[in-house]
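protien #1 (seq + structre)
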Amino acid sequence: MTCTLFLSFFLSTLAIASPHPQRGGNRHRHDVVARAVPTSTGNGKRGLAYNDQSPSLDVFSNSEITWVHDWNSAPGNAPSSFMFVPTLWSDKSPHSDNWDQLAAGHPYLMSFNEPDIVGQADMTVGDALNAYKSLMFPKRTGSVQIGAPSVSSGSGTNEHGNPYGTGWLREFLRQCDDPNSCVADFVSGHWYGCPSGACTVQNDVDAFKFYVGDLVDAAAGRDVWIPEFQRFGDAEGQRQFLQAVLPELDANAAVKRYAYFMVADGILTTGGQVSELGRVFVAG
């Protein structure tokens, strides 16, 4: 791995250490766009990441956005026209409260948000395996697919000595290999680029492609989801980044779903309307 890639991965782990509801405030501003949202060439892969503070997702209707998630097990203000994918953020209360009821009826379920990150789900592989077997695996049926915990793009080890990123994921998958007690139908990974100004757009494009390839390799034939990724920096740099990586994601048969971080004013929306960057994400 080059020094640039290592720096990108290391800094990305620092960037994602805060809880999700605090991410993605009004870092950038984009012009309000009142025109219709263009359709994409994403083949149903593109989704939206949002939270309770996000503007209405209705502004993305009549596009090829097909699915949404909010790092939670309840859909909040998501329109019923989008497929909502619940996430069991961790095995602790309140996240696990009413999980059986909230998970029912959904064809896809995601598990444990960044267990490799202190301040997120923060779980050892062993703890995650035990929780996954009791809370996730019983939900798996012929019509319901379940995902391995969503790891970060970090490398090395965290404060507890546990591996970051795909290192954590590989060990989880190695031990989650029993058709009677532990199976992951798809894997999930998050990626963040260098802090603003620390890397060029091409640095981040190369680092992201490397991460996607590493995630696909770790998946070992399983479907790959990237429900959270973002390049930091100004709108123009993010636009160039998206225009470079979206065709790659769409052409990669292993990647089934992805979502840019996130539906928030200053990123994918401005003043409650789709921003120019949001239009790039939708249209690709």
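ok now protien #2
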Amino acid sequence: MYTPSSLWTWAFTIVALIQAAIILSFESYTFARFQIALKENAQNNPIAGPYTRIIPTYLTLFIFGFLYQLVLVWDALRLKNTIQVIGLCLYNLGLMIYAAVQIEQIHDALEQLGGQNLLDKGYENLWLKVKPFLVAVPCILAVGLVCLSFIAWKLYDEFAWTIYKHISADLRMKRRYLTFQIYIALLKFDFFFFLGFTVQFLVVVKFPFKDPEFGLTIAAVPVTILILVMAAFFTRRENKFGMSVIIILFFCGMAYFIFKLERMYEKNETQRNRYKSGRKSLTTFAVITLILIIMTITNAIACALNFGKGLKPHISERKLEDHDEKDIDTEMPNLNHGQMPSRMTID
């Protein structure tokens, strides 16, 4: 099992761990205060009921988000994958934006619950206790982003040496491989934002079980996971038909998120109010996910255009070794021992 072996890999891991531990403790404190102040009959209130689910949902997403980030940190360092390391910095930026949005969302939720007399000692008493911790979360993420970005710059030089020793393809092959790496990294980040949006939608927005949109949203979870897994599979196998289907499904995913955004802001006031309790956070996730889908489609097309140009052996063979440990997934082995190696760049 991989463990960090240098100053900067340890630094990247420790920053991610400390950031996760501090923020999750702040979110847990907020959740505990909320649960203590919430009256027993609050969830049954027809007006304020949906607002009681906002804070538990945010905490759940942050727990999942940071645990997933730690898995991706381990994966990126294990594979010495510079692209994924840079992606983790952008992932941190996405969490920071989400944390900033949650401040106003939680304020609105507590205000609604206080207005319905569903909080012990009123809304202002609870808000004054949790506000400093909520404001601190995006600030900590901002500091974490700066630290991770600096360490990522150092890791680029460190990982470039490993790539220098193992990769000896021509410049065009390196660019094809770079496109593949970006695509695989995007699929990993797509998973969190796809799933995060869907979970929020199911928990925060209250749908009747017979509502077709409820069933559609439930079905989106396994379908999304299957699409992402098959997207990576077809790319590694250079399956043109399968890749064409995946690209079409990505366009369908884009249409799905545009449809969800339209539903949240449609003219029908009754329908629009259904999303009121979580509209801002759902919009944030939907916009980030749409940006990721566009980037994923672009890279999927670029990968498909590279099929049959000699990249397949580099990504299907798993021979790259670092001392006595084999990296498993996305690093490119040296299949051309007769050539002098040249350093891989990401520009």
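Residues 318-347 have pLDDT under 50 and may be disordered.
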